[in-house]
Amino acid sequence: MAESLKDKVAIIGMGCTPFGELWDKDVDDLIVDAVFEALQDAGLGLKDIQAVWAGTANSGVNAASVSAPLQLQYIPVTRVENACATGIEVIRNAAHSLAAKVYDVVLAVGFEKLKDLGYPGLHPGKLSDKFHPIYPAGGTGPGRYALAATRYFQRYGLTPEEGKKTLAKISVKSHYSGARNPKAHLRRELGLDDVLRAPMIAWPLGLQDCCGVTDGASAVVLCRTEDVKHFAPHHQDDYITIKGIGVSAGPGWGKNKEEYDFTHWPETEHAARQAYQMAGIRNPRKELDMAEIHDCFSIAELIAMESLGFCPKGRAKEEIIDTGAFVAPPFREMVMRKWGATEEEIKAAPAPEEILVVNHSGGLKSFGHPVGASGGREVYEIYKQIQGKAQEASRQLKEIRLGLAHNQGGHPGRFQCAVIVVGVPPERLP
Amino acid sequence: MSAGIVSYGAYVPIYRLNRAEIARVWGSSPAKGEKAVANSDEDSLTMGVEAGRDCLKGVDPHTVDGLYFASTTAPYREKRSSSIIAAALDLRRDIVTADLGNSLGAGSNALKMALDAVNAGSARKVLVVAADCRLPPPNSAFEPMFGDGAAALLIGTEHVMATLEDRVTLSSNFLDIWRRDRGDTYIRAWEDRFIVDKGYTAHLQEAVNGLLKRWQVKPADITKAAFYAPDPRSHANMGRVLGLDKNQVQEPLFDLLGNTGTPFFMMILVAALEKAKSGDRLLAASYGDGADAWLFRVTECVERVKDRRGMERHLASKMMLPSYGTYLRFRDLMPWEATPLPPPESSANVFYREERALLRGYGHRCNACGHLQFPPQRVCMWCQEKDRFEAVRIVDKRGKLFTFSLDERAVFALDLPNVLVIVDLEEGGRIYGQATDRDPKSLKVGMEMELTFRKFHEGSGFHNYSWKCRPVRC
After folding, report:
1. Where are the domains of chain A?
2. What ipTM is given for this predicted complex?
3. CATH dotted code for A141-208+240-424
């Protein structure tokens, strides 16, 4: 019979390159930098790794794309690709091999080199549907996510101005946090007008509703929880465990089935349900301390918060965004002032159980989105926050014990989604 | 019963370019009126499909035994356009398809051949489609004059609305306008006074007068005369030469449409048929490498042909091109900024396997649960039943705009923003596609949409045609 993965697999080392337009680094550099940081953190060497899962949407060909730069000596390497959900998918596959007791120490690495392509957006020719000359024609990431924004505004009665402003608040919040994160890509604070007046990309999404197009890599070293004392004794007091994982591939109905309304992400709902069930989470808003969610576009973060169950559908604006409940408490007032919030709104601080810090890293929006690396990067943020090792004191959150990372690939109506919940192991819970 | 016109249809692209804008760009003296300009995703073939659909409204396409396509601007030099049009119109496969070209007389050639085939009994119904999208040399006398459009006539023996009484045909090697196989992007022409006097006027007059004499018809017996002319002045002069009163001459639409080339005489004839009454006698005349004159008698079946967009409704439905620059984009007349992105790719195999969906416009209705879905797939998206479908043509159905986005950065789109749409069809089925012929500012969730046959791109060096959405045209 199948068993839950909860707390069976531990993360004992993590690495993440600075994200950005890394003109001086090639994809091999990114892999080497992320993996060696993770190995150093784990206190292990390459020779200790027994198997590798390598995730990239399009910056690699096969296992050799990782075995060659790392000079791996004939161990199993598997290339994993699940579009923008790749990063969590490599961790899941690595964790499963440990739960199956096939290996003792494994590595999951995600990477993407987008900025060698000479094109400022996401290269459409390199990240396409199954080859078809007609059906995907004209489809771009922003164009497809904007379909959801138009529909969301329509369904919940937001005027274009109200809708745009709600989305803009998300970007302002993400940049405020990201500006304080040393490894983030776009580290400039934004005001509300910076977002609202940015050049239009795909109505209603402007430039500042879109995430960075970024180079980067992230890496995770994992072992069974029972073996942490053996492989990473120095992490005995601050390793984290996997609490739950969910992965969901949608049937692609939204593109062709009238039932789908484009204002929720069913794949995210299914992946979250699986992960919450494994982790034993009943009220994510209350139980989670932080969430790193897939905000390739501002509308993606808004709808994901609802589909992850942080609030009822259609309520993210009133219950999470406008109250600032998703902003780290120390940043909340400043962020709300940037929105132009009234003193009353600022004073009406959400209750502690209503606060769920979302995308404190800066999110894909500000930290950047090297496709295959983003899932690992999200987990990296939670891992460092739990360990109290946020790279800059002002952004260290207090009492973080349980965090969620969310990755989704594809586009509204045709997603693949991965959700992972990580946190402190049971013996360290108060 | 002998062959005649059973049905008619026409197509005028939605965009118009004001002639004053052309004059402004070149500093020339402005000509009056406007001309019809094909959208960036239109060509003679797609316009021909639209005219054909208009003509076949209410006609079972499987009863058509042949399709002749006439154009001087067929999108392929080698590769038949009529076979693609026939697929888009969902005609049978065991029919005759033929392309006629190389002359503005190709339209009347197609009409003659269709009448002959039906009269000979080798076909019951033949669809004649003529379309042109001729590229005038920029800053030439042709530029303000040339317009784009298409017309279609269904020839048959049942329910004939216009019986052919007689015709006269002249073939001539007269050199007036031409384009060589290699080296000529634009048409070339000999001196206009010579080609109008000795070419157009002389040939058309000879054909028409020959016809009237042979049939012993006086000019006064003509209800309406629908005839080609290269320009308004030559047209007015021809009316006088033939001894016709102004009210006998069908308005040639130069100010609203322009000279559309091969389909021009047919478009004027369609405009005449739209207003025709039983018993009317129509004269039609075309020109190009000779001339043809036709005498039609309108029958009571004219009342059967209704709901055509034809000329009148198409002309009334329009959007002005904002500038000559947009026209340059639409006709792809300049080398544009390079992009590092690879051009779109395609596959002839895909079009071979998926002709029924991509060209013929069929979706699937699940026989287990009854849901209509597009594009067709093996497993039903509603009940997961496998391979229990019947094919249903969806492209004549309307739908409602469910949501849309306006993509300003679609690299290969000649007409930004690229409009992505979700359209839910009235009888079920959802289209995830692109919208064309739209004003981005007036798109509204819930508005009524329809499908139109367009060129998507030229991936792998061929024309990739399929169906797009547009707000209901008119």
Report:
1. 9-115+216-235, 141-208+240-424
2. 0.92
3. 3.40.47.10
In B368-399, which positions are buried (b, 16+ CB within 10 angstroms) versus exposed (e)?
eeebbbbbebeebbbeeeeeebeebebbebeb
Find all residues with CB under 8 Å of A142, minimum gap 6, and list them: A121, A201, A202, A205, A209, A210, A297, B405, B407, B409
Asked if the Cβ–Cβ distance from A202 to B408 is below 8 Å, we say: yes
Bridge-based pairing state of the strands B96-100 and B319-320: unpaired
Domains A9-115+216-235 and A141-208+240-424 share a fold: yes
Q: Which of B347, B405, B434 sits opposite A137 (nearest CB)?
A: B434
Class of domain A9-115+216-235: alpha beta
Q: Is A157 on the interface with B (CB under 8 A)?
A: no
Domain positions in chain B: 4-330, 348-471
| Phi and psi, residue A12, nearest 5° | -115, 0
Helix or strand (DSSP H, E) at B373: strand B372-373
Q: Which residue has the tokens 């634009």?
A: B186
How many Å apart are CA A147 and CA B422, to the nearest integer? Answer: 8
Give the strand pairing for B149-156 and B4-11: antiparallel
Local confidence pLDDT in tens for the 430 residues of chain A: 999 999 999 999 999 999 999 999 999 999 999 999 999 999 999 999 999 999 999 898 899 999 999 999 999 999 999 989 999 999 999 999 999 999 999 999 999 999 998 888 776 654 445 578 998 888 899 999 999 999 999 999 999 999 999 999 999 999 999 999 999 999 999 999 999 999 999 999 999 999 989 999 999 999 999 999 999 999 999 999 999 999 999 998 888 999 999 999 999 999 999 999 999 999 999 999 999 999 999 999 999 999 999 999 999 999 999 999 999 999 999 999 999 999 999 999 999 999 999 999 999 999 999 999 999 999 999 999 999 999 899 999 999 999 999 999 999 999 999 999 999 999 999 8
- Best of B366, B402, B412, B432 to mutate (most A CBs within 10 Å, chain A): B432
Helix (H) or strand (E) holding A404: strand A402-411
Complete DSSP assignment for A167-228: HHHHHHHHHHHHTT-TT-S------HHHHHTSPEEEETEEGGGBPPP-BEEEEEEEEEGGGH
Distance, CA of A232 to CA of A223 (rounded, Å): 9
pLDDT tens digits, one per residue of A29-48: 999 999 999 999 999 999 99
User: Would you identify the CATH topology of the domain B4-330?
Assistant: Peroxisomal Thiolase; Chain A, domain 1 (3.40.47)
A137 neighbourhood in chain B, CB within 8 Å:
344, 434, 456-457, 464
Amino acid at residue number A83: A
Mutate to test the interface with B, among A201, A256, A303 (most CBs of B within 10 A): A256
Nearest Cα to Cα of residue B354 among B371, B384, B375 = B375
* CA nearest to B400, candidates B376, B377, B430: B430
Contacts of A347 (CB under 8 A, 6+ apart): none
Q: Is A84 a known active-site residue?
A: yes
| A121 near B CB under 8 A | yes
Best CA proximity match to A302, nearest among A288, A282, A318, A278: A318
Helices (H), B195-261: 202-215, 232-241
The secondary element (H helix, E strand) that includes residue A415 is strand A414-423
